[in-house]
Structures are given as C-alpha cells and as structure tokens.
Amino acid sequence: MAPNFTPKIMIVESYGSNVKSLSTHLSSFGVPLEVVTAVDAPMAMARLQREPADLVIIDTLLRGKIDGYELCRNLRSTYFGQNVPIILLLGGTLSLERSKGILAGADLLLHRPVVKEELLKMLQLLLGRKLEQGDNGRASVEPIPLRRLHSVV
User: Do the domain assignments include residue 116?
Assistant: First the structure.
C-alpha cells in the first residue's frame, strides 16, 4: 500500500444519523479514509465535479426530486462518474429494488441495516487495487475496470 494515498469516500445521504453511522463503520477500515458528504443529488453532482471521489456510497431514499437510483444513473452518464465505484444502499430486500439498483449502474448493493463487516468488505473489494498500487495523483491513475452488475430480469 502506498503511504501517500488516502481514498476519498463520498457518502450521499439525507439523514445525519445515517451519515454518522456510516462514518463510524468506515473509520474501522484499516487505512485512513477522507470522508466527504452530500445531503442530496444536486449537491453530490456539484461536489463530485469539483472534487473526484474514489468511491461513492448513495442512499436510494434521498430527499428531494432526485432519488439515489437517478443520481447513480446521472453519475454514470458523466465523464467524472463513469469509472467511480458506486455502492447503493437499499431500504429493503425487494427484488424490484435490487433490479433498479443494477439497472442504475451500481457496482454493489448493500441492504439496510448496514452491517459494518459487509461495508468494509465492499470497500476492500472496490478499492483494493488502488490501495495496492497507490495514487500519485488521481488523474495519472488508470481507471480500474469494474465488472458492473447486470440484471437478468
């Protein structure tokens, strides 16, 4: 692991208590993380355009006109969001929610309540190669090709 690389994780979540819970889980990751937040889709898109993230965690139940699924789709359609790993937080276990998350372009889906070990394993999976290679500047690092989830429905 490169000593100069601190992964930037963006949490897009409308409720402060959920942000605090996720941040607490992330603090157990084993390497320092820079955690930034946004409370809605427009704030997230604006911030990500200015400050790229290494991974984005999006709650599907965002307040406002744009929910988490739409934010994921919008992010995937942008230059700065095409290769960033996205974890969608689903409110339930319905297969419809899973299908919507897959179709939106999520890399991984995580159901609430969030289990810390599952979240940390997902971070390791999605950030592992970057952590091994290091990052001497985000622009100079080749995007990690990710295998997107695909729906069979």
Answer: yes
| CATH number of 132's domain | 3.40.50.2300
Q: What is the pLDDT of residues 93-122, one digit of tens each?
A: 677 888 999 999 999 999 999 999 999 999
**C-alpha–C-alpha distance, residues 88 and 86, integer Å:** 6
Entry pTM:
0.85
How many domains does the chain fold into? 1
Burial 100-111 (b: 16+ CB within 10 A, else e): bbbebbbbbbbb
- 28-80 tens-digit pLDDT: 998 999 999 999 999 999 999 999 999 999 999 999 999 999 999 999 999 98
The answer to whether the CB of 81 falls within 8 A of the CB of 48 is yes
Contacts of 118 by beta carbon, 8 Å cutoff, 6+ apart: 110
Helix (H, G, I), strand (E, B) or coil at 104: helix
Q: Tokens representing 8?
A: 């930037």
3-state secondary structure 39-70: CCHHHHHHHHHHCCCCEEEEECCCCCCCCHHH
